[in-house]
Structures are given as C-alpha cells and as structure tokens.
Amino acid sequence: MRLPPFSNLLRTFHSFSYYARVRPSAQQSLSRNPSTLKSMSIIPFFGSLFGSSSNQPSTMSYPDQRSSDEWRAVLTKEQFRILREKGTEAPGSGKYDKFFSDAGVYTCAGCNTPLYKANHKFKSGCGWPAYFDSIPGAVTRHEDNTWGMARTEICCANCGGHLGHVFKGEGYATPTDERHCVNSISLNFSPEDKPAETK
Ligand SMILES: [Zn+2]
Predict the structure, then answer these.
(1) C-alpha of residue 168 to centroid of ligand 1, in Å
(2) For the chain, domain boundaries
(3) How far is the CA of 182 from the centre of ligand 1 (A)?
C-alpha cells in the first residue's frame, strides 16, 4: 500500500517539527529540566494544525474497525492499555528489547499485520525495540503533543493500534537516521519472513 498524498504532507510537516529530538534519556530528564520544557512551548502549533494528539481518538479511519469491547475480548489487559489506550511499557522490560534475529517479521499484536522486518531492528540502547524502517505502508504517523513534548506517534495502519513513537536525526548509524521506538507488547515475532500484506 502506498502512502496517500495527505500522509506525505504530514511527513513533510513532521520534518519541520523534528527539532524536538528527544532521546529517552532526555525525556526522563524533562521533569527535572524546566528550561527544556519552556523551549518547547511553541510546539503545540503543529498539533493544533492537525488536531490530533495521543489523548484523543485519531480521526483517521482504519480498515480494522473493531470496538473497544471487541479488542478487550482478544487482548490482554496490558496489550489493551498500550495498543488501544496508548500506554508505554517500562523501559528494558519488553521481551523484544534485547531480542535479535537474522530473519522474520514483527507483526501487530492486535491484528497480526506485518509491521517490521527482523533486519529493520537495531541496537539503540534506549530500552525499547528500535527499528530504522518499517514495512512500506504498515505504520501511520501522528503528531503527539502530550507531556509537553512534540513527538510523532506511530500506529498500525490496519487497526490503529499504538506502537510507540518515531524519532529522527539522533545520529544512529542506520540507513534512515530514524528510530521507531516500539513497545514489545504491541508486537509478535514470527521467525518466518512473510511478504507485506498491506500492498
Ligand atoms: Zn494492527
């Protein structure tokens, strides 16, 4: 599936907002560093432009339109908290944080859509699984201005399940200079390579 033009537009705008490049270590220090928060005070402009934040249901419609009750029936409590309520697992706690494989795919724990290939994963040391790219069209991006930070939320393009955030320009030696910071609990790993089903 190719990204629709509107998504390309969003990505262009995101590139302007990437000056708030916040590594997890910096995020953790935000509460102790009011000057950092102050310097980010103009960031909500971008959020108001697009009107989405991780606290509000996305206006984007996804192919998988299951209701909250339907999701509760198939997800664990913790999966529901993270995938459907945009929670975050504790750093270093996820089963895929330090897991690496030469082959295979990571699929959405909600709807089983292939999201990342094993060879997209890299060692970031951030405490969550990190990928420098996703399977084309598998992940959507949204402005997230919660917690006084301008971040780009990433979701499964099929069910809208919350995956984590994407950060750009951090200087990792990867082909894209992007880090998809994903909750392990949002993912399942399959050792077999499957073609992307989102074409
Ligand atoms: Zn999904």
Answers:
(1) 23
(2) 5-190
(3) 13
* Residue 126 designated active-site: no
Tokens 């959507």 locate to 140
Task: Find the 137 Cα to ligand 1 centroid distance in Å.
Answer: 12
Do 131 and 180 touch, CB atoms closer than 8 A? yes
Place of tokens 């997800």: 75
Q: What pTM does this model have?
A: 0.69
Topology of the domain covering 5-190: 2.170.150
Cβ atoms of residues 136 and 112 within 8 Å: no
Give 87-115 pLDDT, tens digit per residue: 999 999 999 999 999 999 999 999 999 99
- Could you tell me the distance, in angstroms and rounded to a whole number, from the CA of residue 192 to the centre of ligand 1? 18
Dmax (CA) of the chain: 47
Per-residue pLDDT band for 86 (boundaries 50, 70, 90) equals: very high
